[in-house]
C-alpha cells in the first residue's frame, strides 16, 4: 500500500501503513490500562520490546519463505536471535505455567501454519476458506505479550478474549493485504487464497477484473472483522480500540478508492490494447 500510495491521504502515507500502526505495541498497553492495577514501567517496557522482537522474528522468516533475502542463512540466524530475545524478555517476569503452555502451543501453531501456507500457495494445491483460517495461525503469536500482562495481573481467564481479538484483527489485516498484493502475488506464482478466490488460476487481466468487482465486498469483510474485534475489546475494557479501528477503516476507505481507480484504469488499458490487437 505504501509503495502504490493506496492508503495515503493528503498529508502523505497513513501511519496505519507502518508496522507500529498495527496494534502490535498498543494491545499490551491497552490491557495494562484497562485491567486491574497498572504494571511498573520496566515490566511494560520489556513486554513491548518482546512484542517487537517476536514480530521481527516472524518477518525475517516470512521474507525467507518469500525468497526476499540475498543471504537466507543469515535470515534464519537473525530470526533465531529475535525469537530468543522475545522469549527471554517475557521469562524475566512471567512464571505462570499456563502462559508458557500457551506460548508453546501458539509458536507450534505458527510453525505449522507457515509450512502449510507454503504448500497451499503452489498452483496445483486446493486452497479454501478453512485453509485460510488455518494459515492465519501464523499471526497468533501477537497475542502472547498481551497474555503476559493478563498473567501478571492474575486475570488469565481473560486470555481467550485476547486470542480472539488478535484473530479478528489479523484476519482483517490479511484480507486487506492479500487483496492489495494479489496482482504481485499472481505475477510471482504465489497462489494465495485471495488470488484463487478472485481469479482461480487465470491470468492477470481476469484477476484485475475480479478485483474491480470484488473490491467493496472484500474491504467490507475486513471491516466486519474489525467490528468483531471492537466487541471483544469491549469485554476487555479497551477504550482505545474503537479509536484505532475507526482510523484503520478510514485508511482502508482511502485505499479502496485509490486502488479501485488504479484497477479500473488497468482493466481499461487491457481492454483498449486487446481491441487494438483485434482490429
What characteristics describe this protein?
279 residues, mainly alpha, Farnesyl Diphosphate Synthase, 10 helices, disordered C terminus
Task: Summarize the structure in short.
This protein is mainly α. It is 72% helix and 0% strand. It is built from ten helices and no strands.
Please identify the top-level CATH class.
Answer: Mainly Alpha
Shape category: globular
- In quaternary terms, these chains amount to single chain
User: What low-confidence regions span 5 or more consecutive residues with pLDDT below 50?
Assistant: 274-279
Question: Helix count?
Answer: 10
Category from helices, strands and their pairing:
mainly alpha
Average the pLDDT over all residues and give the rounded result: 86
Helix amount:
over 70%
- Name the CATH superfamily assignment: Farnesyl Diphosphate Synthase
Using the 3D structure, state the CATH architecture.
Orthogonal Bundle
Looking at the structure, the CATH topology is: Farnesyl Diphosphate Synthase
Strand content: under 5%
What distance separates the N and C termini? 36 Å
- Tell me the number of structural domains: 1
Say how many strands there are.
0
Main β-sheet description = none
- What string gives the helices and strands in order? HHHHHHHHHH
Amino acid at each position: 500500500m505504501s509503495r502504490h500510495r493506496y492508503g495515503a491521504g493528503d498529508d502523505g502515507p497513513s501511519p496505519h501503513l507502518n508496522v507500529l500502526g498495527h496494534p502490535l505495541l498498543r494491545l499490551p498497553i491497552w490491557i495494562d490500562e484497562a485491567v486491574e492495577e497498572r504494571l511498573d514501567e520496566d515490566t511494560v517496557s520489556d513486554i513491548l520490546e518482546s512484542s517487537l522482537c517476536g514480530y521481527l522474528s516472524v518477518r525475517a522468516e516470512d521474507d525467507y519463505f518469500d525468497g526476499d533475502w540475498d543471504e537466507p542463512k543469515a535470515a534464519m540466524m537473525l530470526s533465531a536471535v529475535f525469537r530468543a530475545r522475545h522469549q527471554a524478555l517475557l521469562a524475566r517476569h512471567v512464571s505462570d505455567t499456563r502462559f508458557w503452555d500457551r506460548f508453546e502451543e501458539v509458536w507450534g501453531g505458527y510453525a505449522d501454519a507457515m509450512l502449510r501456507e507454503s504448500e497451499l500457495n503452489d498452483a496445483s494445491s486446493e486452497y479454501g476458506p478453512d485453509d485460510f483460517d488455518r494459515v492465519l495461525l501464523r499471526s497468533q503469536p501477537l497475542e502472547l505479550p498481551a497474555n503476559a500482562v493478563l498473567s501478571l495481573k492474575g486475570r488469565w481467564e481473560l486470555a481467550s478474549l485476547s486470542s480472539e481479538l488478535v484473530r479478528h484483527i489479523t484476519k482483517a489485516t490479511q484480507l486487506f493485504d492479500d487483496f492489495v498484493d494479489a496482482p504481485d502475488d499472481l505475477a510471482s506464482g504465489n497462489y494465495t487464497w485471495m488470488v484463487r478466490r478472485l481469479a482461480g488460476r487465470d491470468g492477470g487481466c481476469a484477476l484485475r477484473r475480479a478485483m474491480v468487482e470484488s473490491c467493496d465486498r472484500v474491504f467490507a469483510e475486513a471491516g466486519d472483522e474489525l467490528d468483531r474485534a471492537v466487541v471483544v475489546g469491549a469485554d476487555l475494557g479497551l477504550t482505545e480500540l474503537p479509536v484505532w479501528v475507526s482510523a484503520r477503516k478510514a485508511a482502508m476507505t482511502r485505499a479502496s478508492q485509490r486502488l479501485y481507480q488504479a484497477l479500473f484504469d488497468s482493466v481499461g488499458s487491457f481492454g483498449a490494447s486487446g481491441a487494438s490487437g483485434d482490429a
